[in-house]
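Fold this sequence, please.
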Amino acid sequence: MDSEKKSMLKDALILFAITLAAGLLLGFVHDVTKEPIAEQKAKAKAEACRNVFADADAFEALAAEDGPTAYFMAGQDSNVDIDEVMRALDSSGQLLGYVITVTDHEGYGGDIQFSMGVTLDGTLNGISLLNIKETAGLGMKAGDVLVPQFADKKVESFTYTKSGSTSDSEIDAISGATITTNAIVNGVNSGLLLFRDVLVENEGGAVNE
């Protein structure tokens, strides 16, 4: 019996040692990779900002207390989240507009996240996809088919069409990927609504009619 107990204790100690070693190793790997991962995320964010606001010299995160995005989202479609708002600034620190990061949960393959740049006069510079996992050959065409259509448009909101756009506010849908098209259009419209109803109102910007 004593021999059996010793064997069990030995096995328990071995298991504990293995678990402890694995935990220490995971912690070490996390510490080693944490900074490079953070740097890559920051680099990707900066690149996305430049993609949609090339005229800006710097970007500054809008603190939560500076703009009631939570209040805005409380009354909006639960399928869309406003993840972050960045002020786009010129070399002297003057406000040029905003970079708004949006996640729409209506994608065929899951969440679709993108950044969009909006100037103070309400012009949408364009959008830059950050995360998309749609069907290959269909929804994944969003970068080639949808993204260019949003560039340099000044409209209140967008709709999509399957019969060919006839105005700046119409986006040609991806053939066979209406769900993806709808998700991105809805996300862009939420960003534009945030700009008009919250940022212009609270940040002192002005939309020139």
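The mean pLDDT is 85. The two ends are 89 Å apart (CA to CA).
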